[in-house]
Amino acid sequence: MAITTLPPLALYVHLPWCVHKCPYCDFNSFELRGAIADLEYVDALLRDLDFELPLVAGREIISIFIGGGTPSLFGGAAITRLLDGIRARLCLLGDCEITLEANPGAVEAGRFAAYRAAGVNRLSIGAQSFRGEQLKALGRVHGVDEIGNAVALAREAGFDNLNLDLMYGLPQDNLTGAIDDLEQALALAPAHLSWYQLTLEPNTAFHRQPPALPDDELITAIEKTGRELLARHGYTRYEISAYAQSGRRCQHNLNYWQFGDYLGLGAGAHGKLTRPDGTIERRARLRNPRSYQASAGQADSVSVDRVGRAEDLRLEFLMNALRLTDGVPRDLLTERTGLTLEPMRGAIATATEQGWLGGEPETLATTPAGLNALNRVLALFA
Ligand SMILES: C[S@@+](CC[C@H](N)C(=O)[O-])C[C@H]1O[C@@H](n2cnc3c(N)ncnc32)[C@H](O)[C@@H]1O
Ligand code: SF4
User: What is the residue with the minimal CA distance to atom 2 of ligand 2?
Assistant: First the structure.
């Protein structure tokens, strides 16, 4: 199906190493053994980008997210080579948001300054909790003090756009402790907070040996109290787990939720690209860093999947768009995919009657009740 305008295009870059693998984490991350060969890995990323370039000729990059893994293990020279290489090959939007993920246990003042000079303008710091015993239970490589230290170093290096990642529903969690975590995060006044409920993911140590997690009643109480606290401090919830001060929503993640396009570079990275005829390609890289590096820049490092069926596309679109508290314009599906919502008219009516969808007539948006019951809402559309 033809579309009139191609979606905005973002760039995700995956740096796969960590000091230690956290027992809850199912990201494509690997414990670093020995010294990091960061410059060689960056060269592989740029070969990978060269291979993708013909697919995105003439398109501007709206945001870059350097995620992991633990990108803050990479030296300043490597991140500079990466961003210089990207700028030499792609046209970046004037105020392109460039985020890098940092772990408070892998932080250095000189490195932060080099990231800033290289063009990184947003740091996302993985705090997770401000309780020492919880950080231990989560297998984190840092203590509480290192979180504040990372924030201070980031600010000294010139970063004013900071995100903190926090998790709740931790092993043996309780209301007071979870809210205290939020209060300590708020005391650091980050521009953005990602507040995730801990989930037990397949193929993780926690999944194999589950810790005792709070029941639904406690989770509901933590969420209610926490969301009120965040709102009182001026943080607007704009997605299930994302809260931001005014003007500080994460442009990169918004692009995913608004069904934009993205290039994905690095071991195990995924990309989504729309062709002018409306076809959507999912492109995935080899997950193992060594295999990825050996094959980057060649066709055998990438597997391509065409999202063909209209029903699958509509559902994928809704799975993203309905996470946003503001929802999306009803005609965004057509703009992004050339499809209409017509076949979903019955399900939309049912969800609206249930009180799960609401808002302006031209908008498709979940109500707070719908957001709480998102899986049940999506089941209506499946
Ligand atoms: C790729 S990690 C972030 C950066 C860095 N590696 C770190 O951990 O500090 C992205 C975030 O996802 C969240 N996360 C990871 N696994 C999770 C899980 N099983 N449940 C909930 N949130 C999770 C954590 O808050 C984490 O900071
Ligand atoms: S540091 Fe982050 S990416 Fe690495 S294992 Fe822990 S949660 Fe996963």
Answer: 69
| Mean pLDDT value of segment 166-173 | 97
Distance in angstroms (rounded) separating the CA atoms of residues 237 and 199: 20
Ligand 1 shell residues, CB under 6 Å: 24-25, 27, 67-68, 70, 101, 103, 126, 128, 165, 167, 196, 198-199, 201
* 135, containing H or E segment: helix 132-137
Q: Which residues pair with residue 101 across a beta bridge?
A: 124
Kindly give, in sequence order, each residue whose CB lies less than 8 Å from that of residue 377, ignoring residues fewer than 6 positions away.
Answer: 322, 351, 356, 357, 366, 370
Q: Supply the residue whose CA is at minimum distance from atom 12 of ligand 1.
A: 165
Task: Note the ligand closest to the C-alpha atom of 140.
Answer: 2
**Distance in Å, CA 126 to ligand 1 centroid:** 7
Place of tokens 């065409």: 306
The answer, as to whether pTM is greater than 0.90, is: yes
Domain boundaries, the chain: 9-255, 310-382
pLDDT at res. 2: 72
Measure the CA–CA gap between 88 and 82, rounded to whole angstroms: 10
Q: Which two tokens stand for residue 60?
A: 């501007």
What spacing in Å lies between the alpha carbon of 25 and ligand 1's midpoint?
7
| Amino acid letter, residue 162 | L
Ligand 2 contact, 22 CB (< 6 A): yes
Q: Which amino acid is at 268?
A: G
Position 175 pLDDT exceeds 70: yes
Q: Which fold has domain 9-255?
A: TIM Barrel (3.20.20)
CATH 1.25.40.80 fits 310-382, yes or no: no
